[in-house]
Structure prediction request, 430 residues.
Amino acid sequence: MQIKGTPQQGLIGATVAFFIGFAAVSLFGPTAKKLQDIMGLTPTMVGFLVAVPSLSGSLLRIPFAAWVDTTGGRKPILILLAASIVGMAGLTALMFLLYPDGMTTGLYPLLLVLGMLSGCGIATFSPGIGQVSYWFPQRRQGAALAAYAGVGNLAPGIFSLLLPVALTALGLPGSYLVWLLLLSAGAVVYFFIGRNAWYFQARGQGADPAQARSLAQAQGQELFPARSTRESLIVSARIWKTWLLVAIYFTTFGGFIAMTSWLPTYWTAFFGVSAVAAGLYTALYSISTSVFRVLSGSVADRLGGEKTVRLALIVMLAGAGLMSVSHALALSIAATLIMALGMGAANAAVFKLVAKEAPQAVGGASGWVGGLGAFGGFALPPILSVFVRLQGQVGYATGFLTYVVIALVALALALVLSRSHTRAALPQPM
Prediction:
């Protein structure tokens, strides 16, 4: 029986898969204005279009995260990347065959379906988290997971920056073809270097759980699956604090995904900037959020997860308030960076709180938080589009009142979390 690989190889493989899959957040955002003009789409239809990759990308995180505990991360990640490749291949073929003259409103449902398939790559986040966690001992997990999430989260910003440039040079069909080739190349790289942790390798070669555990422990593996998939999800769902963390992550990480997909439309439609400039401003926000997420991990270690979340949400709230009243390009850019700081810091702190608030079933809780929290990436852009439909051009600004509201709700829930610990620490009456 042979078990191969190193933690570093496991981290690199999972990061490559998440990076290339997570880029689908930017699938339609930079092209939405062009598709809207050609196909005659309403603002609401545009909102759903830019958000639809996040639907599959968020909901599939839940079962695929839990699946890691029985099979390791390799099979779930490969299946998600394969589905994403099918979606991108369909989009590419559609663009080559029908763009631009054949692109009619009747093709809108097909775009949504292909977008959902392409968005499956976004869901690689959850099985990748599990794969990295099983590879690394506890004392090194924080740094490994921060590197994994931080590098992977850079993808939407980078693709938001590059896609408008590619559109100018190659046109929409050529741009999607290059994206398809990059996605396929990333999947091939993962196929060859992405490995399960030693325990799952041994189980895959026929070892019983005790034998596999012994072999993996001899290599240095410390974390092993403790519950079945179903048990982990059920136990974590019964912990009320899990759902507070879901709501907070919906605001901060789901809000991040929604912003990344909506901002290209916002910049071009509200300020009239070029697609390339819109990609630059969107990338500035997206990449900054990812960098702040990495840097805020140590802040959360020092201040504690609850305090970091509260402060971060206040910062996000300030940025969202500025966005809702700004009609100046420079002020809006500054406001997005303020939101990036708050959202990135909160995202780092939430997963620090998962292990603290749901220690009985960390894997299941991570699936709920990561999956349903990311659902905000699908839910929020259509809401933003409603403001445009009702108010016209000014609705692009006032729509950010949505972020003000959800930030206030998340802040209230964060206070509930903090007070629950305060009450628990108080001496109980005799």
User: Anything to note?
Assistant: Residues 138-193 form the longest helix (56 residues).
